Amino acid sequence: MTNTNPHITSAEWEVMRVVWANHSISSRQIIDLLTSILAWKEGTIKSLINRLVQKGLLIKEENKRPSSYQASISELEALASHVQLLFNQTCQRQRGQLLHTIIEQQELSQADCRLLIDQLNQKLDHAPERLACQCPVGQCHCHQHPNKEG
Fold first, then answer.
1. What gap in Å lies between CA 66 and CA 83, rounded to an integer?
2. In what order do the strands lie in the sheet with 25-26?
3. pLDDT digits (tens, 9 = 90+) for 118-128
4. Does the CA dihedral 109-111-114-116 come out positive or negative?
5. For the CA atoms of 25, 26, 29, 34, what is the dihedral angle to 10 degrees?
6. How far apart are CA 117 and CA 80, in angstroms?
7. Which residue of 13, 45, 66, 100 is surrounded by the most CB atoms within 10 Å?
8. φ and ψ at residue 59, rounded to 5 degrees
């Protein structure tokens, strides 16, 4: 069962990153890797693995011995879902500023910059002059200052 909109806690991300990096991996390997980089107990890691299986984010391959785990969602899909949740909680008129802040704070390669520039140039051709606020009254400043550009 794949969870198309996973909520992954910070601790669960640590486990998922190990699984994504190794494709198919035993719980022993996950435990050994994580205890070598984090001050976690084995029981904590086992609980996280079980929680991720229950959420449908990890698939336990029981026909192998020892049992191994695979992710049911790619790292990029999980990250995109996580980011989409953030943007869903942001006024449409503030999303450009949020993207600006994110880009400003990250180190990017020249190839990454070119990709972003190309994407923005494509979006520019079809972008509206101004976005409408989609927030309920009282949840952003747009309703208090309706003529202010966002």
1. 35
2. 25-26, 68-71, 58-61
3. 999 999 999 99
4. negative
5. 80
6. 19
7. 45
8. -110, 125
- Write phi, then psi, for 60 (nearest 5 degrees): -90, 120
Average pLDDT over residues 62-80: 90
User: 58 burial class (0-12, 13-18, 19+ CB within 10 angstroms)?
Assistant: buried
Examine the pLDDT at 150 and tell me if it is beyond 50.
no
- Positive or negative CA dihedral for 113, 117, 123, 128? positive
Tokens, residue 100:
């600006």
**Encoded amino acid at 69, one letter:** Y
| pLDDT for residue 6 | 66
Quickly state the pLDDT bin for 147 (edges 50, 70, 90): low
